[in-house]
Amino acid sequence: MIEAKTDIIVRYAETDKMGVVYHSNYFTWFEIGRVRLLDDIGHSYLKLENSGFRLPVLEATAKFIRPAFFDDRLVIHTTIREKPKVRMQIEYEIWREETILCTGVTRHAFVNEQGIPTRPPPLFIEQMGPYFR
Fold first, then answer.
1. pLDDT at 22
2. Catalytic residue, candidates 7, 16, 40, 71
3. What architecture (CATH level 2) is domain 2-132?
4. How far apart are CA 44 and CA 52, in angstroms?
5. Domain map of the chain by residue range?
6. How confident is the model at residue 46 (pLDDT cuts 50, 70, 90)?
């Protein structure tokens, strides 16, 4: 299992007229967590793209439990529980201190530059290895 934690501060522009974070921003935060997790294992999104791979989102879900507000200090918990193959599932939790605000999941496929599903690059699998023994 691989986990990463990313701190963010809610910006004013991310809130709606009611002062609550607009729901679509959570998906942006999921991406922030996902990018951080890949960086932490040493295989960034950019490295994947530069080696001819893409990681499109096949499915994204979110469950909103409590609202977030302007200037909240949040933590994005990002987790991969199973070693990626052609597909990869990533789970997310958004926390404000001891309160969980949102959970979510994204499912991705590894594809080549032509959009054809493929296995992840060998170096990526090698870097994932220690987390799934």
1. 96
2. 16
3. Roll (3.10)
4. 13
5. 2-132
6. very high
